[in-house]
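Design a sequence for this backbone.
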């Protein structure tokens, strides 16, 4: 177990390296073979803002325990494929989460203690951002700052997540796939992180206005997360509404209404945006042709694919490829 008091993430990473008896090279820790494979990168932007990017698979259990730290907020973006279970909480309230995946966002107060235990076999992709209260109070309207502070203190047991949506997922994917030796990596990460903070604040305010999650049962929220995972991962064809409703044991009308309330899109719109984003990624990276990209996400007609692509991104697939 790694116990720490969070002041900033570069110091946090140095402490973890000492605990694991491995070096930190250019702010990157390579996970040792006995623990798993992958890496953790940490950087301090200034004394008030820092972040850590985790991207690894575990071969052994890993446990973090955060003790009382600096006065600030921690935003954690979690995309974790869980093996067995994930234990989260504090010493008085530990929650054992056995869901096979966890795609969520938590806001907590760095002064509150918390623990996370991740089981061997889990794939971990997490972005952790520390922002001091002083910096947040300087740039946020007072009423929003106060709402965030109250929410963070009430959320020390990680009971009230926001869920990762399509825009979060796209930005996070780009962050996790940035190479450590990318000459523009620092600028790209900072740009992505600032955009994610902005997206988080928009999601938080929308959730407050919609009275989420307090008016929605926790089990229903978890069911919506499961549906979102299906819609964003099975892109070759839209699942039937009946099959999705059966998957989460609720009526089709409740599913449609609740999903839009939580994610802000209809089921089909969310699925369509997810698959078109996948096609865009394939074309940008040159992994396949335009025809192959369309076929990959369920379009048999190339002109229909081009029309849907232009409607979503404002550009035809062929023009995107030309400018690659």
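Sequence:
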């Amino acid at each position: 177990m790694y116990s720490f008091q969070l002041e900033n993430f570069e110091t946090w990473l140095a402490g973890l390296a000492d605990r694991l008896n491995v070096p930190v090279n250019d702010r990157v820790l390579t996970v040792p073979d006995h623990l798993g494979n992958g890496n953790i990168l940490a950087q301090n932007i200034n004394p008030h803002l820092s972040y850590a990017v985790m991207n690894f698979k575990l071969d052994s259990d890993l446990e973090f325990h955060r003790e009382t730290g600096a006065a600030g907020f921690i935003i954690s973006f979690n995309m974790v494929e869980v093996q067995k279970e994930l234990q989260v909480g504090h010493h008085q309230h530990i929650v054992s989460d056995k869901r096979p995946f966890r795609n969520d966002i938590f806001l907590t107060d760095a002064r509150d203690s918390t623990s996370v235990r991740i089981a061997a076999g889990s794939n971990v992709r997490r972005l952790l951002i520390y922002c001091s209260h002083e910096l947040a109070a300087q740039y946020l309207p007072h009423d929003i700052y106060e709402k965030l502070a109250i929410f963070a203190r009430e959320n020390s047991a990680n009971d009230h997540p926001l869920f990762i949506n399509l825009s979060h997922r796209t930005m996070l994917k780009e962050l996790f796939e940035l190479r450590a030796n990318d000459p523009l990596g620092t600028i790209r990460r900072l740009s992505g992180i600032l955009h994610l903070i902005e997206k988080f604040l928009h999601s938080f305010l929308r959730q407050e206005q919609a009275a989420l999650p307090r008016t929605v049962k926790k089990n229903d929220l978890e069911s919506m997360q499961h549906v979102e995972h299906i819609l964003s991962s099975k892109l070759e064809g839209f699942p039937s509404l009946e099959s999705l409703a059966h998957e989460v044991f609720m009526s089709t009308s409740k599913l449609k209404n609740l999903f839009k309330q939580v994610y802000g899109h209809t089921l089909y719109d969310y699925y369509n945006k997810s698959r078109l984003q996948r096609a865009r990624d394939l074309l940008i990276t040159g992994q396949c042709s335009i025809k192959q990209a369309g076929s990959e996400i369920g379009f048999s007609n190339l002109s229909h694919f081009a029309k849907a692509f232009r409607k979503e991104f404002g550009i035809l697939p062929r023009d995107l490829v030309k400018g690659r």
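The mean pLDDT is 87.
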